[in-house]
C-alpha cells in the first residue's frame, strides 16, 4: 500500500481551475487516497482525475462534480452585490 502525503487546502475563494484542482487534491490526500483509488471509487479515468487536480486538459463540469461529490466536497455560491437577488440589491 502506498503512503499518500497530505497537501494543504487552498484559499477558500476559487476563481481558477487550478484552485479547484488543488482543493480536490487536498481532500483526496487528506483522506489517504491515491489517484488510482479515487478514480476507481468515483468511476472516472485516472487521467481525468489528474487533469482536474492540475487544472489542465478539458474536464467537464459533470465529471468535476462527480469527483467532488465522491470526495464529499460541497460548493457554495455568492451572488455579486450588484446582481440583485439574495445578498444583492434588487432593482426597483
TrEMBL record:
Residues 24-78 form the HTH cro/C1-type domain. This is HTH cro/C1-type domain-containing protein. Signal peptide: none annotated.
